[in-house]
Amino acid sequence: MANLGARTNGISANQVEIPMHGNGLEPKPIRAEGVEESSNIDYSQRAQWLRAAVLGANDGLVSVASLMMGIGAIKEDISAMLLAGFAGLVAGACSMAIGEFVSVYTQYDIEKAQIKRQRAANNNNNDFLEGERESLPNPFQAALASALAFSVGAMVPLLAAVFIRDHKVRLGVLVAAVSLALVVFGGVGAVLGKTPVRRSCARVLIGGWMAMAITFGLTKLIGSAQL
Q1: 76-80: long-range contacts (C-beta < 8 A, 24 or more apart)?
Q2: What is the pLDDT of residues 165-211, one digit of tens each?
Q3: Could you tell me if residue 125 is inside a domain?
Q4: Number of helices and strands in the chain (H, E)
Q5: Looking at residue 30, what DSSP letter applies?
Q6: Whole-angstrom Cα distance, residue 148 to residue 100?
Q7: Would you say 93 and 143 are in contact if contact means Cβ atoms under 8 Å apart?
Q8: Confidence band of 13 (pLDDT split at 50, 70, 90)
Q9: Which of 5-9, 79-83, 146-150 has the lowest average pLDDT?
Q10: Does 2 reside within a domain?
Q11: How many structural domains are present in the chain?
Q12: In a domain, 115, yes or no
């Protein structure tokens, strides 16, 4: 009887069995509010757009600054430098927009044709078609983004030179402002591209200096030769 009191059906009194999963159901993981929605964000696509914008701004910065340095090599008039910089801004922004529009529209046509072939293979599944259409690139958006990015970079040398009348000081301030902007753009591009920041900044800075120096030197040489 003592043994029966101590044990019942082979289960010790000191042993308590607690069912962990009732009815074979697994416990549902607790999910914080907003986690599911944020996991659907394509951060890689966002980084690509941001990096393209940084590269476009860097292009506008270097090209317009080099153009203004070239004009400054042969003319001390501030109006000539500003007009050259403004013309470079407008021409470069239009060139970037048109080139990006043509490039992305070509990609759009290729992907649209691919969707039609896939739709035929999926028996004209409308749900499939709508989902694929949402992922198509937008040529107008790409063109506008490229033009704006180029214009933002091109405004740096223009703003740096617009209020300075002394020719030598103007060139020095122009180089300093462009150098600072190059370091910033190089750092942002490195963060977005997951590359070493110092190496990227140095590469972009040296490249910008070379572009301005070559443009300044060649223009000075041609201007002195009076060709």
Answers
A1: 76/167, 78/161, 78/162, 78/164, 78/165, 78/167, 78/170
A2: 899 999 999 999 999 999 998 888 888 778 888 998 999 999 999 99
A3: yes
A4: 8, 2
A5: P
A6: 12
A7: no
A8: very low
A9: 5-9
A10: no
A11: 1
A12: yes
